[in-house]
Design a protein that fits this description.
The complex is a heterodimer of chains A (382) and B (177). By secondary structure, chain A is of the alpha+beta class. Chain A has 13 helices and 14 strands. A five-stranded mixed beta barrel of chain B has the order 1-2-3-5-4. Classes of the chains: A alpha+beta (382), B alpha+beta (177). The A-B interface holds A 60-61, 63, 220-221, 224-225, 228-232, 234, 236, 242, 246, 249-250, 252-253, 255-257, 259-260, 263-264, 267-268, 271 and B 2, 5-6, 9-10, 13-14, 16-19, 21, 24, 74-75, 77, 79-82, 84-86, 111, 115, 118-119, 122-124, 126, 134, 136, 162, 164-167.
Amino acid sequence: MLPFSYAARNLFRSKPRLLQTIGGSALVVLLVMAAVAINQGMKRVLSASGSPHNVILLGAGSEESVQRSEVPERAAGIAAASIPGISENLGVRAVSGEIFYMSYLGLPDGGRAEATFRGVSPAALHVHSEVRVARGEFPRPGQVMVGRLAWRTLGIDEDALQVGSEVSIHGQSMVVSGFFAAPGTVYESEIWTTVGDLRVLAQRETLSCVVIRLDDPADFSEADLFAKQRLDLELTALRETDYYGKLSSFFSPLRAMVWVTAGLIAAGALFGGFNTLYAAFASRVREMGTLQAIGFGRGTLIWSLVQESTLACLGGALVASLLAVWFFDGATVPFSIGAFAIEIGPGAAIAGIGTGLLLGLAGALPPAVRCLKPPLPVALRM
Amino acid sequence: MIVKHTTLLFAAVLLAACEKSEIVQSTPRADAPGAALAAVIEARPEGEASPIHLVRQTVQPGDRVTVRGRVMGNPSPFVEGRSAFILGDPEVLTPCNERPDDSCETPWDNCCDSKEDVQRGTATIQVVGEDGRVLKEGIEGVGGIEKLAKLTVSGTVAEGSSAELLVINATAIEAGD
């Protein structure tokens, strides 16, 4: 068996080649880590947005899009009175009639940006228990409350909006009353205003949905029964977790495209790395022949070459991990219904190290086999 | 070589992404129904069955009615864990798979019919206990009650029913033509 130090020393025989290998593997690992983190981030934000205690009453036939859904205004009151098991706080039943609306927000600097608005009443804070007013206060008529990450989807500076800033919706001037946080959910990218104001601004006569919070998630059947008993209201009851689960499935092609993009770039880097190793090992056919002549077997030599390549690739993985933590960790990525924060957590780290190991092992084998293929007399003469 | 591999990779990822969306459906029960539900299944409907769209125009809460229809009118016509379902009027609604050149995977949702037709051609059928509340047991799979099954139902028109809304507290449900 060749000593490990032989493989380690060989790494530095050609510094440009070493840098090329480390750089190539770092790029592949960085892309894999980014793809894993983006996929996990998107899944996490969608799954965290749905509470198992919450049921959404949507318009029948609009189960996949709350924006298209139309629910009669009276449905909220009827549901509050009819469905057993609804949570109560100080005598107020946790039933929130809401309007979703996508439009442009007029910004203080005169520009405008597309935003997701949610028309709510104070009951929304009982239903969406993860929402906290972080600064300022809950909006009153003529006011909006801005999600902590809305600046990211609006494409503006983080401090471009402040409490008291003047914005507009359809030319109607509104004042920012406060900011809210709902860590890890899509709500943080939304702008909330009163349901009354949004009804007028969106020119709607109906709600988009009614969200109900149940004490016991098993009472979903009561909400489902209500929706099927009140066929005149044309409602469908969905668990909030199922709704966001469907949204997550809807975005799976987008996640796949992240992988495809990362895969295509990584493939280029991977084959570049193969070329580097082929060139590196090809110039050492004679050295390998000499080692065979003094008694080292081909398996031992392959193992040493794999060690060499794995060390270089793990070095690349280390560089990639540092870059990922430096550049990606905590960065926010906008997508059509919100924004999510990228987290370089254990999943991404394990994927990165695994990719580095795989590159080192699998990437070294074909060039190593080719390097050891010539018969000993031929190898010694090369 | 590189192009071939990347094309295969691209195709594999796209195929993996193209999973069919699933509609959440209640699971048919495997165990025997409770006594109250079993009694309704074993009872024979009384009198001549009428179409749902006509019945809902004329009846009042408390009236005895017999209707005929099929389990349809909703993507998930059964209430999960409760003895209640939606019955559709075949004179008004047509399951999508019975239309020419239609291969709808959930024909019981009547997505091919207008909202107005679904509204006037459906009724809620429920089995209530002695306390007047809907039984807390699923009815799908009991006595041949399945999606698109043809049923004849006798019962009492429930409180709150009107021309826009027909809820029947069933006393007899019979599957078959």
